[in-house]
Amino acid sequence: MKLLLIHASEFRWRVREAARGLRVRDEPEPEEAELEDVVVAFVAVEEGGSQDLSGVAARAADAVAEFAGRVKCSTVVLYPYAHLSTSLARPEVALKALRDLAEGLRTMGLSVVRSPFGYYKEFWLHCKGHSLAEAFRDISPT
Asked: How far apart are CA 60 and CA 30, in angstroms?
């Protein structure tokens, strides 16, 4: 699993249309969002991770929570972002991993918003720009 983590002053998205040819998707709820002071986690779930999906999701939750703690932010946005990898998991595996990641973060006491999986979305991101505001994590199966 690849994670691009951004501490954002503001993050917005709006669903444009369902991704063509993709049968697995969330209901587009919320269809759009405007959030302030959030950690945006752009997430790509990779093939090979399904062997240890719960372990990968748990380690990803730890990594995201650690980052959120460092920037003193209690709200995380999980934004599916296939562009971080050329070796993507099957859509049903990716969606399960995103749901597991969200649940793991919630059990750690973080507020979590998931943008819809399986849709083309437009987004606007305003990164805070401080020394800890951006990070990348590569979570591999054990």
From this structure: 23
Residues near 119 by beta carbon (within 8 Å), at least 6 away in sequence: 15, 16, 17, 18, 19, 25, 26, 28
Question: What six digits make up the tokens of 29?
Answer: 């709820």
The model's confidence at residue 113, banded by pLDDT at 50, 70 and 90, is very high
pTM score above 0.85: yes
Cα–Cα–Cα angle for 111, 65, 15, nearest 5°? Answer: 50
- Taking all residues of the chain, what is their mean pLDDT, rounded to a whole number? 94
Sorted by where each starts, the structural domains of the chain and their CATH numbers stand as: 2-138 (3.50.80.10)
